[in-house]
Design a protein that fits this description.
The complex is a heterodimer of chains A (323) and B (525).
Chain A: H1 2-30, H2 33-37, H3 44-53, H4 60-72, H5 86-121, H6 126-140, H7 143-157, E1 170-172, E2 175-177, H8 182-215, H9 218-225, H10 230-259, H11 262-267, H12 273-282, H13 286-314
Antiparallel strand pairs in A: 1-2
Helix pairs in contact in A: 1-13, 5-6, 5-8, 5-10, 5-13, 6-8, 7-8, 8-10, 10-13, 12-13
Chain B: H1 2-17, E1 26-31, H2 45-54, E2 59-61, E3 67-69, E4 72-79, E5 82-87, H3 101-110, E6 128-135, E7 138-143, H4 150-154, H5 162-167, H6 170-174, E8 185-191, E9 195-200, E10 213-218, H7 222-230, E11 236-238, H8 245-250, E12 254-269, E13 279-280, H9 295-304, H10 307-314, E14 319-321, H11 344-353, E15 361-367, H12 374-387, E16 391-397, H13 399-407, E17 413-419, H14 427-433, H15 454-465, H16 469-486, E18 490-503, E19 506-508, E20 521-523
Parallel strand pairs in B: 1-10, 1-11, 15-16, 15-17
Antiparallel strand pairs in B: 2-3, 4-5, 5-7, 6-7, 8-9, 9-10, 11-18, 12-17, 12-18, 13-15, 14-18, 19-20
Classes of the chains: A mainly alpha (323), B alpha+beta (525).
């Protein structure tokens, strides 16, 4: 286990280094931030001074080395637009994104697994088929469109919920989150549901196919022959066996909605990290773009690591040393 | 089971039934822009607009673009280079400290020294040689050369307490610790990317604003802002897309506040390159000459464009045709230039005279995320040019790429809008966008067309050096006549309107410089 973890961490380090180079080159190619930000009244001389001051006149490799040197000192750069450390900007917005992604995942898991089980166990019934076709619809509808429809229906026409934004933030056990206030929850319902649609469809389909596959296996027949109760068969023997692909997908989906909830966050004006990256790209705020991508890579790697560790608990055949 | 159901119903109903009623004294605004709380960091017009709420300036511009007293109550010229300003007495900062000459000097000194600043306010202060304190409420500003527009320039600089100006960083402003000014509103809360809340300064020296509290909801997505307005979550909407104006006006309870702004749109023409990068002959091959160097061709471009159609069909009536690059009614607007006419036949004839009876091929460039309807306007222009024989393709791109390339003179025909609000005249646009590029003199920094005419340059330099406003206006009119009427170096298009979506309960008067101002809002009667 320890060897596995150490090897994983070293791999992660290499991936981070390579990605930083790729991102740096990409961002460098887009354009010069000063052209976007500088006021039209600035003279050519001021423009040059600004470029010099920000170190943008140096060749790319030199800028990259400076960037690496700063990282070694624990600095990820300062935002051009906000004049604050990029990492502060990202971490400041992390809680908002986390609570949104977390709520979305809770919705997806607690609706998706039961629905998937039902559809898998009753594959030929009307309800089972409806669930499967429903999940196809969920898959295929574009998130932003569903999001707008939800706003029009529930916020504008019915006026039940607020159209957008993050609500009041409450404190519980020292954690500040909008999950702890009614106003916060009201603001969360629509975006979280919107963000949950895709992972929900995925979990339904995975659970359903896993269920119908496993139910026909020999050990399930023996379990039934032994006279075990149906709930025990389904929730212990079946679930344990179909959970591995589901956990993988949940892990992957969690990192995806954490890092790239851009569409949902934009439509619902959710002050999360996804919007930060879009705004930073629009304004060519290079330090934030680079820092953001490195942070998301880190998140991906951590969650994947967690998933691998979880595997070994769910399936004793998996030995981490061999991975 | 029933108990669980009951609980769910209870939770749902309580969640749904908590309505968020806004108090009468609260104004909620949906805005696309995150503010910089630091008044001297990142000089873009939206930040200048936010700064007006918290920070007083020596003089300010009113909603029509006129200079009005603010922290300075009166001023006089000792001579052409020295201005004496009397400061308002008895003004207190939000932290209770007194305002005096030291704060002015320290604030102006801070402007060029904010670190890591890609857009400095220094263009508003670099004509100043020194500021001296005569007594705590009198200062003398000495300029490096006679500078008639000084008052307009210093209207861009927010005044903060000297102790803060000397030590505090942008971060301290963002956290609210240093966000102290003399303005009509006080800092209350800022959550980046989410909301910015300000409260009325009850000790404000001037007319107090109507609303006790203003909440800016930061929403870059225009569809979300619209939804928030229609759903009743906000009272005012900044940055309304013209395409949604009709939807809003048709609904009960909303209206669109509008007025012509100080931003005029035009096309840069490549009058510089011997071979223009995006001009091709009719077979699509590169040409060895640049037809745009011929004034007849440039005139044909202008005659081919139906400005009324752009205003009516693309802009939905929310613009006015322009015949020069400052709008009618503004200082330095030239009366000598005839209305821009639409005459495709004459355009074709001019092309034939210039030796292009069958026209040529061209690509027009424009941004697609900078001005209202920018992409559609460019497309419409391309169609109109094609109709007179200049087969025009369209290329649009995000502003983050567009303006850099434009300024490197990589385009043949490029769309741009210029806000003349700060100088209230054509001075800035003419000197920055049409004077021959000269780095050391600070001229022509946005001359993307490469226009260069010594006679024009002389007129601009005369205007810049003129201390007498009439003399300045005459020089500017002369320059505009040379550039537009004689040389046809740019194609003026239209002056856009500033539009704000509003609920009927709020009465809002937009400012001509497109700055949003909570002070311009009051409850409707």
């Amino acid at each position: 286990m320890t060897i596995f973890l150490i090897r994983r961490l070293m791999q992660s380090f290499v991936v981070l280094l390579i990605m930083s180079l790729v991102v740096f080159a990409g961002v460098y190619a887009i354009g010069n931030p000063v052209d976007v930000l500088i006021s039209p009244e600035a003279t050519e001389l001021q423009r040059e001074q600004t470029i010099q001051q920000l170190g943008l006149d140096r060749p790319m490799w030199e800028q990259y080395l400076i960037f690496l040197k700063n990282i070694a000192e624990g600095k990820l750069g300062t935002s051009f637009v906000h004049n604050r450390p990029a990492i502060t900007l990202i971490l400041e917005r992390f809680p908002a994104t986390f609570e949104l992604a977390f709520s979305a995942l809770v919705i997806a898991v607690f609706l998706g697994i039961p629905l998937g089980l039902w559809a898998g166990l009753r594959a030929d019934s009307f309800s089972g088929r409806s669930i499967i076709s429903g999940s196809i619809i969920l898959f295929s509808m574009p998130t932003f469109w569903v999001g707008l429809l939800m706003i029009i229906a529930f916020a504008i026409n019915l006026n039940w919920l607020p159209t957008s934004g993050r609500g009041e933030v409450g404190t519980f056990l020292g954690i500040r989150s909008s999950l702890f206030t009614i106003d916060g929850l009201r603001h969360l319902v629509l975006p979280a549901t919107n963000l949950a649609l895709y992972p929900l469809a995925l979990i339904i389909r995975l659970t359903a196919s896993g269920t119908s596959e496993t139910m026909s296996l020999d050990f399930m027949r023996s379990a039934r022959a032994k006279g075990l109760h149906a709930p025990r068969i389904v929730f212990v023997h079946l679930l344990k066996n179909i959970l591995i692909p589901i956990v993988t997908v949940i892990g992957l989906q969690f990192s995806v909605i954490l890092a790239f909830a851009v569409v949902t966050e934009s439509i619902f004006s959710w002050p999360g990290m996804g919007r930060l990256i879009i705004e930073s790209i629009n304004l060519l705020d290079r330090p934030v773009i680079v820092a953001y991508i490195l942070v998301t890579i880190l998140i991906f790697m951590l969650i994947n690591l967690l998933v691998d560790v979880l595997y070994s608990f769910l399936d004793p055949r998996v030995r981490l040393e061999k991975m | 089971m029933n108990r669980v159901l009951g609980l769910i119903v209870l939770i749902m109903s309580s969640v749904m039934s908590v309505w968020s009623f806004a108090a009468d004294s609260e104004l909620r605004v949906a805005t696309p822009n995150d503010p910089s709380i630091d008044p001297h960091f990142l000089y873009v017009s939206t930040n200048a607009a936010y700064a007006r709420h918290l920070y007083g300036k020596l003089v300010d511009l009113d909603g029509d673009g006129n200079v009005i007293p603010s922290l300075a109550v009166e001023w006089k010229n000792i001579d052409e280079n020295n201005w004496e300003l009397k400061l308002r007495e008895g003004v207190k900062f939000h932290d209770g400290s007194d305002f005096d000459a030291k704060d002015v000097i320290a604030s102006f000194e801070r402007v060029p020294n904010v670190p890591n600043n890609p857009a400095s306010y220094v263009s508003n202060t670099n004509m100043i040689e020194s500021i001296t304190e005569k007594d705590p409420h009198t200062i003398v500003i000495t300029t490096k050369m006679p500078y008639a527009l000084l008052l307009r320039r210093i209207s861009g600089i927010g005044i903060i307490p000297s102790e803060i100006a000397e030590t505090d960083t942008t971060e301290d402003f963002t956290s609210g610790k240093a966000a102290i000014g003399t303005g009509p509103y006080k800092f209350s809360e800022y959550v980046p990317g989410d909301r910015y809340v300000i409260e009325r300064n009850e000790d404000f020296w001037g007319e107090k604003p109507a609303y006790e509290k203003v909440i800016f909801r930061i929403m870059p997505e225009s569809a979300s802002r619209m939804a928030a307005l229609l759903g009743g979550d906000v009272d005012l909407l900044e940055g309304l897309p013209p395409a949604t104006v009709e939807t809003l006006e048709e609904r009960d309870g909303f209206y669109v506040a509008q007025r012509p702004s100080s931003r005029t749109m035009w096309l840069f023409i490549d009058t510089h390159n011997e071979v223009s990068p995006f001009v091709r002959d009719n077979d699509g091959n590169a040409m060895d000459t640049n037809p745009l160097l011929d004034p007849k061709v440039r005139e044909a471009l202008s005659l081919a464009i139906n400005r009324d159609a752009i205003v009516e069909r693309v802009m939905g009536g929310l613009a006015e045709p322009a015949n020069q690059i400052v709008a009618d009614g503004w200082f330095s607007h030239s009366p000598n230039i005839p209305e821009a006419s639409y005459d495709p036949e004459r355009a074709k004839a001019l092309l034939a005279e210039a030796g292009y009876p069958d026209g040529f091929q061209l690509t027009i460039h424009g941004p697609n995320d900078r001005y209202p309807n920018d992409e559609k306007v460019v497309q419409a222009i391309a169609q109109m040019l094609t109709r007179v024989g200049i087969k025009t393709e369209v290329a649009t791109m995000p502003k983050s790429i567009y303006f850099g390339r434009m300024n490197e003179r990589e385009f043949s025909l490029a769309f741009i809008g210029w806000d003349n609000g700060l100088t209230g005249s054509s001075l800035m646009s003419l000197s920055a966008a049409f004077h021959t590029r000269d780095k050391d003199a600070g001229e022509g920094s946005w001359n993307a067309g490469g226009y260069s005419n010594p006679e024009f340059d002389a007129a601009i330099e005369k205007a810049e050096g003129a201390f007498d406003m009439d003399e300045q206006e005459q020089s500017l009119i002369r320059a505009m006549d040379i550039m537009i009427a004689e040389d046809k170096a740019a194609v003026p298009l239209y002056t856009q309107f500033v539009i704000t979506g509003a609920k009927d309960t709020v009465s809002y008067t937009p400012r001509v410089d497109e700055h949003f101002s909570a002070m311009a809002a009051k409850p409707a009667e």
